[in-house]
Design brief:
- The structure is a single chain.
- The protein has 388 residues and is α/β, with parallel strands linked by helices.
- It is 30% helix and 22% strand.
- The chain folds into 2 domains: 5-158, VC0802-like (2-Layer Sandwich); 180-219 and 252-387, Rossmann fold (3-Layer(aba) Sandwich), CATH 3.40.50.
- It contains 10 helices and 14 strands.
- Helix 5 (180-189) crosses helix 6 (207-216).
- The longest helix is centred in the N-terminal third of the chain and has 19 residues, at 108-126.
- The protein is elongated.
- 41% of the residues are buried.
- The structure holds S-adenosylmethionine.
- Residues 174, 176-178, 201-205, 207-208, 263-265, 268, 291-293, 307-309, 323 line the site of S-adenosylmethionine.
Amino acid sequence: MKKTFNLVATAAAGLEAVVGREVRQLGYDCQVENGKVRFQGDVKTIIETNLWLRAADRIKIVVGQFPARTFEELFQGVFGLDWDNYLPLGSAFPISKAKCVKSKLHNEPSVQAITKKAVVKKLQKIYHRPEGVPLMENGPEYKIEVSLVKDHATVMIDTTGSSLFKRGYRVEKGGAPIKENMAAAILMLSNWYPDKPLIDPTCGSGTFCIEAAMIGMNIAPGFNREFAFESWSWVSKELVQEVRDEAEDKADYDVDLDISGFDIDARMVEIAKKNAEEAGLADVIKLKQMRLQDLKTDKINGVIVSNPPYGERLLDDKAIDILYNEMGQTFAPLKTWSKFILTSDEGFEKKYGTQADKKRKLYNGTLKVDLYQYFGQRVKRHQVTERG
Ligand SMILES: C[S@@+](CC[C@H](N)C(=O)[O-])C[C@H]1O[C@@H](n2cnc3c(N)ncnc32)[C@H](O)[C@@H]1O
């Protein structure tokens, strides 16, 4: 099997640079592009990046890239790739996704069918199977994806399985949870460090709080789940265990964290507690029912992170206007606290009453949202208390 792989970590629009930073922190050079980060590595890299990347969606192997303006070029291009390095005899290899953008070949089902045909033909040749006899596909699954952008094909294998945002701790969710990898990315974009207090005053199912605790304790986000590559024969179980053991050694469960989540809805607080418990963090995160309008604290230099109800989701317009306005009034006295508020409401700043220091466009699924960033006044701890 192969020693070095061309890999991509896919990322939601707006989060590519965050994923790029994470890949570099793991020790790999990378190139940040729209929707993805490219890097190279070995089997251990595949395991590590799946286990550790907090903001990415998936890790994929790039099997090959080539021009494909016709079905013949597509067939020959796919046939020419080194499939024997990836697909042992008996593998299941669905062409799970085909995407055609600004290309002469635009019929996605046909692109899928031709790709499948070419891989089958190549495997029959490699494994000396007679043509016309279908290949058995009763072994581990390798999902193949093909994308055509401006007549250029990229053929990839997904190593992840269900998307990386599925950490495995969410036993229940509320009406509008934020994706776990988006929550982690926002925390990494913020100026929160584990020695600062963190409050999510609209915590819902607790995603920001749980992700913050995992960052604070250096817990690998994928520790509680499995990945597609774990069923592959060329990924050694011992190596997977080694990387998992290394992750366990890197976690610091003794670090002191000050993380609180509040929500007006008692049912949501119960859900957040269950999720925190599933993540093994029930003792670390303080969760309680409270209206954000009642938030008061004497602590300084903290960070508030929140995705309050958006217009289209959960509340009507009038109620949103009032909530955002009360949010502004409640947070205003907390001068040394930074605030990071994610909403799709373009009139947020007006309703909140203060213009953001910085705004960043992101996508929560397909919904365009903005992260409104308000930076707290910098003070040394002995200089001031919030009410001082
Ligand atoms: C978009 S959801 C937050 C989702 C959350 N980040 C998660 O991951 O599940 C907004 C939350 O704000 C809560 N909420 C609405 N009005 C509130 C208020 N006045 N005070 C506190 N929480 C409120 C809702 O109950 C809901 O759980």
